[in-house]
């Protein structure tokens, strides 16, 4: 995941993201859990928007991300600096967990940045070992329909007061694989703008593949949701975002 210079403008560019919808789902999952949930690790937390929202709700939060630039942006919020543990870690690599958690979450298609099945397995195994007994894991991915029919071949753009971007979605070699070619223009001083580019690589797999890997690692009671619905099992090939809930 290559969030470098983009970290400076990420929140401004992503202000349309429905973070509150994720919060509703997470709080619903917690309310339906069979054990109390207090400690949560947010994997791929980015600038920490959801991490801070949950911390404000009284949860003991750890925000983990492999991008030091994104974590530095997350830590600029002074009100959360002392209440959240920020951890720089690549979830596909061996992680020496400082503690174990009641719940792990990974939101906003973070798992789509893991583009190899064996790496997905490593990530799920690391998360499994980060959880307490009966801990729960909640994450989402783009559906195959979203990647193949909505994103690939499209160009998106937006202009704001202090930044603008052009976003091209280029197909990869494999089904469900895409590259995001991102060109940014960030205002520095007066009418001077700095131009920079980043390329992001994502891939999604069929829901059955994620289910199979979860089961292989040892997760149980696996449920699937779609498109921010709170009903389990209500999804099909036209769903745009798939959510998984699994228990250790």
TrEMBL record:
<feature type="domain" description="Methyltransferase">
    <location>
        <begin position="40"/>
        <end position="135"/>
    </location>
</feature>
<dbReference type="InterPro" id="IPR029063">
    <property type="entry name" value="SAM-dependent_MTases_sf"/>
</dbReference>
<protein>
    <submittedName>
        <fullName>Class I SAM-dependent DNA methyltransferase</fullName>
    </submittedName>
</protein>
<dbReference type="Pfam" id="PF13649">
    <property type="entry name" value="Methyltransf_25"/>
</dbReference>
<keyword id="KW-0489">Methyltransferase</keyword>
<dbReference type="GO" id="GO:0032259">
    <property type="term" value="P:methylation"/>
</dbReference>
<dbReference type="GO" id="GO:0008168">
    <property type="term" value="F:methyltransferase activity"/>
</dbReference>
<keyword id="KW-0808">Transferase</keyword>
<dbReference type="InterPro" id="IPR041698">
    <property type="entry name" value="Methyltransf_25"/>
</dbReference>
């Amino acid at each position: 995941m290559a969030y470098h210079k983009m970290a400076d403008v990420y929140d401004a560019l992503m202000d349309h993201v429905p973070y509150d919808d994720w919060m509703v789902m997470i709080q619903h999952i917690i309310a339906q859990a069979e054990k109390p949930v207090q400690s949560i690790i947010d994997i791929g937390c980015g600038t920490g928007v959801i991490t801070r929202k949950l911390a404000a709700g009284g949860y003991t939060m750890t925000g983990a991300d492999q991008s030091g630039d994104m974590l530095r942006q997350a830590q600029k919020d002074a009100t959360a600096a002392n209440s959240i543990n920020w951890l720089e870690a690549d979830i596909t690599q061996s992680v020496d967990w400082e503690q174990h958690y009641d719940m792990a979450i990974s939101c906003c298609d973070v798992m789509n940045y893991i583009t190899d099945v064996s790496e997905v397995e490593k990530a799920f195994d690391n998360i499994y070992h980060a959880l307490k007994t009966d801990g729960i894991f909640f994450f989402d991915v783009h559906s195959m329909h979203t990647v193949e029919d909505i994103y690939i071949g499209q160009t998106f753009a937006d202009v704001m007061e202090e930044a603008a971007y052009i976003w091209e979605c280029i197909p990869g070699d494999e089904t469900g694989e895409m590259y995001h070619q991102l060109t940014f223009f960030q205002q520095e001083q007066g009418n001077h703008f700095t131009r920079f580019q980043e390329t992001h690589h994502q891939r999604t797999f069929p829901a059955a593949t994620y289910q199979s890997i979860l089961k292989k690692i040892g997760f149980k009671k696996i449920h699937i949701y779609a498109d921010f619905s709170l009903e389990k099992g209500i999804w099909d090939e036209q769903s745009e975002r798939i959510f998984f809930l699994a228990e250790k």
